[in-house]
Amino acid sequence: MTDPCSPAQGPLAMICGGGNLPFVVADAVVRRGRSVVLFPIRGWADPTAAARYPHYWVGLGQLGRFRRLATAAGCRDLVIIGTTLRPSLRQLQPDLVTLHYVPRIVELLRGGDDHLLSGVARIFEENGFRLLGAHDVAPEILVPEGTLGRHRPSARDLVDIARGVALIRAIGPFDVGQAVVVADRYVLAVEAAEGTDGMLARVAELRRERRVPLSGKTGVLVKAPKPGQDRRLDLPSIGVATIAGAAQAGLAGIAVEAEGAITADLEDFVKAADAAGLFVVGVPAGAAGQGGAAAGAAAGTADASRAPS
What we know:
Elements: E1 12-16, H1 21-31, E2 36-40, H2 47-50, H3 63-72, E3 77-81, H4 89-92, H5 96-99, H6 102-108, H7 113-126, E4 130-132, H8 134-137, E5 146-147, H9 155-171, E6 179-183, E7 186-190, H10 195-208, E8 220-223, H11 240-248, E9 253-257, H12 266-276, E10 279-283, H13 285-288, H14 292-299
Parallel strand pairs: 1-2, 1-3, 3-4, 8-9, 9-10
Antiparallel strand pairs: 5-10, 6-7, 6-8
């Protein structure tokens, strides 16, 4: 594949949902000398941030408008990034071009997120666009390997990490979620339609109600892509809000697949984790499924003596 960061590839089209990540990626692309044209989604993207770039507002069902404007701007490459909620057909309000795809969209909505997003990717490709992952054009958003802050996982945490990654792999064929919470080998929660923040809130409620026999900082949030997932779309993301949710849930830390998760600002994320007393570790996919010892080797030397506080 030609260098996706090269200015010679022409302007990059970016369909932007909610959150700060789309604009972090846009800034990174511009720093590398490639121009961007943003297509912020009405009702989701931040109008103030979008105004910093050439942009055209689009609705979720306006493929025709997007295709026309992106083609006129000379865009061939496309990145889709940012948060949205799964729409209903009524919310789509399709234009004439999108109407052609409604039967396919109906079928795509009858499945998990990867099923839906992979199908959407194929539709954009059929319309002449090369779909790229945000990490292809802004590799600095990828979470690196190793222990990232002051705090390290204990031997007990490493076992929970390995179990969590194994669970994500096991449920991947069902296209369920990208995150689980494991404490003392006990699976407390699996991410579903509520998302990671909602799952962490659910764990916090379980602990407040004393429905799980845990005390102190115990358990790990584990996030990793599903096996076979289209990594150009919807890589697991973490941020400062994830730290807050994990702390409220009483967890010891967070583990993600190294270079299989993204964050808008790694430095701020690690600072927040340090302040909250949580460890953050990026574990290579190859080591994560081989048990606690292999995960520990990837994460760095673990402080096996750390007790829950």
